[in-house]
Amino acid sequence: MSRQDAYALVIGIGQYRDEAITPLRFTNADAKAFAELLVDDDICGVPEENVRLLVDEEATLFAIKDSISDWLSRKVGPDSTAIIYYAGHGDVEPDRTQSSHDGIANYLLPYDTSSTNLYASALSKEEFQGLVNTVRCKRSVILMDACHSGGVATAGSRKMRVGYSQDIYSSLAEGAGSTVIAASAPNQLSWEDENLGHGIFTYHLLEALRGEADADGDGRISMIEVFDYLKRKVPESARKLGGAEQTPVFKADMSEDIVLTVNPERIARIAEEEAEKAAAEQARIREVREKLFNFEKDNALPARAHNRVNLLIEKHPSQLTAKEKSILELMNAMCLGIVSVDTFVEHCDESVDPPGPTPVPGPKPIPQPPPPSTEEVSSGLNLAMILCSLFMPLVGFIAGLIFLGQQVEPKKKAGKRWIIISCVAFVLWFLLGACAVMLGALDQGLSNPYYY
């Protein structure tokens, strides 16, 4: 997530205009703490002007819809990250449109919600989905610390009435790069606790983003790492503090994980540690080489063993075979004076075959064409075809063409011969025929009594 290209709408509602809606004690603290974390240069580093915070009376239905469909939608670009955080009441009522599968309508409750008519005054799941769809960017993250269904309202829960609904989060996560983490499953309550000073979900979310979720210790915290942390911590705290079940929900449609926070100090420290390790390794290799050189200089270590070990100490441990590892262990023991040089050399000769010259592949043999066939045309066939070409030129011509197309040289020659004879015979037969016609015409003329 690029810090400069991230935008967030943070909503926290604890006091409602309708006094029938139970106040929440820590939603304001949740929203403000999350907004502060986003702009903290050591964690998220999002510019302050890229974060809009709506608390209590600021978070009216119009203000929420306007902030998403206008402010957030205009701010983001194709490569941006959009974050929407909501802490407040969620509620359900019978679906007045009868369009849901289970007959239950789900709502988020803005500040000006009327408890007697959620349909007219609250933000329905479908409306919220439509608002999210107006925000066209590469990555969107939705974090919801509210209940949407299930159970009976109890002090400390972010829910008002009895209800049950199908999973409402799947539709919010539709679209590439979309991710939703919700505080509780659809049939559970989301709890807040006085000792924590936050909602249980948000308390552990803040912990996760401040570094507790960094499972691989690389200084970067992704959405998957955050959820892995929340799914362990939130149920544990809900059972301990409220004696209830609260299981976070994760829905995503993304081709790659989204990094939410980075710890520059941790990343710099990791780079420094890696550089120190590399320098220490180079110093160790130089020291070993110096000792090996001294062993060889004193004529105690043969050059062949020295060369083999020099190659092995440059290898990464993961690339070493079991035999090569045993050689290096014995070498270290030799350098410390635990084993003798002779013992090391003997073990080295037994364990590793001396490197031989790499065989150089010779030139590939050039494929030779098959020798020409010497199959001859029988004299009988040849004589018959010559006679046939003389007296039936068309037959001889066709046979000649067939033999001329063969790959065998003698047959090609015979075919050529028959074609020539056929052509000559055709010309001769044509001339003989023409002469016969002329002689016939002359004879007829002489025998005519009227011929003068």
UniProtKB/TrEMBL annotation:
GO terms for biological process: proteolysis. Residues 268-298 form a coiled coil. Signal peptide: none annotated. SUPFAM superfamilies: Caspase-like (SSF52129). The keyword Coiled coil applies. Residues 7-255 form the Peptidase C14 caspase domain. This is Caspase family protein. It comes from Pelagicoccus albus.
